[in-house]
Amino acid sequence: MTQALYRKYRPKQWDTVIGQDHVIQTLTNSIKADRVGHAYLFAGPRGTGKTTVARLLAKAVNCLSEDPTKRPCNECDHCKAVNENRFMDMIEIDAASNNGVDDVRDLREKINFSPSQGKYKVYVIDEVHMLSGGAFNALLKTLEEPPPHAIFVLATTEIHKIPATVLSRCQRHEFRRVPIDEIVKNLKEIAATENIQADEEALTLIARQSAGGMRDAQSLLDQLSSTGTNITLALAQQVLGTATSQTVLDVINSVLDHQPARGLETIHRALDSGADPRSLARQLVEYTRGLMLIQMGNAEQVEATREVKNQMEAHAKAFNTSDVLRMMKIFNNAATDLRGGWQPSLSLELALAEVVEAPAEVATIAAAPQPKPKPVSAPVAESKPEVKSEALTPEEKPAINSNDIVKAWKPLINALPKAQANLGALMNSVRNIDVQGKTLILGMASDVLVEKLNKPDQIETIQRLIKDHFHVELSVRCVVTNAKGKLPSHVSQDGMVAAAIQHGGEIVDMDD
């Protein structure tokens, strides 16, 4: 069986560990001075070398070399035994599957036995944050007063889950993400040794996809090398799922042409063909990020084929910067949204509707009452209907202050059961909240969103939430609102004025 690259090229010396010099220097100095601690905590992202450094520490403290500066020597019997996974005094424990009180008690019983081969018994507990509360308590006494022949190395990717009582008993070392250029350099060396043909831009993409994890990068190179062909950027994008598909280009074009129906059809066609909605959202984020980089003068940082880059440059000229930033943020929210529930495509549909329909200056839920519009004497564009004050109706006192509902809106969404995750996502898309008389007006960015929210069962749920929270009964009406479409409090929601404003009109004159 062929050995995985990340195992084959696991560092066996201190100086071959990449990107963690601040940790290595401290540990090697303690070994040279014979001042090794009894408990260490290694924290950091996955694949950054925590377990590897723990193994090096186990080798170094048990190395038979008389010169402390040469430990581990990788030549003595103990070093060779560790390298070959047959050293009995290095015990690796996976806390994910051995996380109970009984497991820790079993460890405490065995720890008092003297080492079988070396000077120290080194216990490496991986993913230590998975231990139960009882298991942590059982471990505390041993960490505080271990036998002189025992050393603990606790490794975790989630240090915030480690009790403070445990943290205070360990020497803490933070592992950092490995810089991109150092990962690329390492991948080049492996590719040269293994006779793997790989383009540098493909290796750069692998390094970026690994998010600073050396092990992940080496595993991705291993995966791509199994194709048996030259690893090009196009191949890497295809295998890693980052290639800009025609679907992405079609969606962006539908946004540019302001054709939401065409965009939704494109998305549904891709999803019906088996595409993952979140993966598609990530591709849209990556594409719009490329547009942003080009607009900011950093086109060389865009990882794309020549054909796609040409298309990106054309789109970068067609969109203004604020639109690109808005698209990227909205699609990024869809890519990380967990509220899709039984309808996985909903987050992406909402994102497209918001991107296409909402104006560049996206409105947010008002935190304070909107001021009444001031009279404007300047002429308006022909495309906007002129609204006269004769259509205005007498002001009706609201049953509840709209600000109170604005403040409670998020808690109301959070109060929904998981089965109504779709409703929660739609309520989260509300852009404007107003109360006129006994009617709650919910402003949405597009007709698509209004249609999705304006269902009898969903409206009834919102009414019930309002009644339970505020003890007041309100009817609910969903309307399309744009940046200029917030109605003055004395304007009837059902009149011609409201209809005109909601479709882009402005109040240009008011008769007292």
SSE inventory with pairings:
Elements: H1 5-8, H2 21-32, E1 39-43, H3 50-62, H4 77-83, E2 90-94, H5 101-111, E3 121-126, H6 133-144, E4 150-156, H7 164-167, E5 171-174, H8 180-194, H9 200-209, H10 214-225, H11 233-240, H12 246-256, H13 260-272, H14 277-295, H15 306-318, H16 321-336, H17 346-357, E6 386-387, H18 402-414, H19 421-428, E7 432-436, E8 439-444, H20 447-453, H21 456-470, E9 475-480, H22 496-502, E10 506-507
Parallel strand pairs: 1-4, 1-5, 2-3, 3-4, 6-10, 8-9
Antiparallel strand pairs: 7-8
Helix pairs in contact: 5-6, 8-9, 9-10, 9-11, 12-13, 13-17, 14-15, 14-16, 16-17, 18-19
Can you describe this structure in just a few lines?
This protein is an alpha/beta fold and 512 residues long. It has helices at 5-8, 21-32, 50-62, 77-83, 101-111, 133-144, 164-167, 180-194, 200-209, 214-225, 233-240, 246-256, 260-272, 277-295, 306-318, 321-336, 346-357, 402-414, 421-428, 447-453, 456-470, 496-502, and strands at 39-43, 90-94, 121-126, 150-156, 171-174, 386-387, 432-436, 439-444, 475-480, 506-507. Mean pLDDT is 83; it is low at 359-394.
